[in-house]
Amino acid sequence: xxxxxxxxxxxxxxxxxxxxxxxxxxxxxxxxxxxxxxxxxxxxxxxxxxxxxxxxxxxxxxxxxxxxxxxxxxxxxxxxxxxxxxxxxxxxxxxxxxxxxxxxxxxxxxxxxxxxxxxxxxxxxxxxxxxxxxxxxxxxxxxxxxxxxxxxxxxxxxxxxxxxxxxxxxxxxxxxxxxxxxxxxxxxxxxxxxxxxxxxxxxxxxxxxxxxxxxxxxxxxxxxxxxxxxxxxxxxxxxxxxxxxxxxxxxxxxxxxxxxx
Length: 261
What we know:
Elements: H1 2-24, H2 30-51, H3 58-72, E1 83-87, E2 94-97, E3 101-105, H4 106-111, H5 116-131, H6 134-141, H7 157-172, H8 176-192, H9 198-210, H10 221-224, H11 229-249
Parallel strand pairs: 1-3
Antiparallel strand pairs: 2-3
Helix pairs in contact: 1-2, 1-7, 2-7, 3-5, 5-8, 5-9, 8-11, 9-11
């Protein structure tokens, strides 16, 4: 595994080093950092598209076309951009790359029953990983950027890495604390866009039932590596209560607002 990460660092190392330098530099601007982060994500997204087939279902495409602009319009930091793509996949899956490149599988859309509020929560959760810097930090912390320039170039290394372990890594590399943070911001972002925050717990409650007897369905890496459904539901319900209290206090204001990012 360490060798695979080392080879990945050889492929994207220069751009990651530049991004890290800009973040730490007193002269580098936020716009500069986000631009370089976008460059890193674009390279990774290109390799992923070589490995995964796009889903062409028109209904799914319409769902994303309706949901995406509502979510992105609520992100206050306008330097941030996001793109959303549906790919074919047997397991329910979703992941975010640096720069806001977000992929979801058609099976996770089917698992949501094409319910827009639930899909909005999943997309918002992945957007939160980008907004909070989780996506870029994961690449920085798992690539051999300090010595990558000394390695002889290996053609197709990144594509091979993604084919063998990349998707698994992108699904499960976050700590449960970071997943909980993404839940929190994701619910707030979806609510700001006008989607029902309760849809998050409705989805998780249904997943919890599916993974218990008699169904006991395996939902794959995406949900198994997140905190337990019960823990997530309790945390989200607490957040929803706070959001409802805030709405009561601020009654009469516009229902949508921007989320820092």
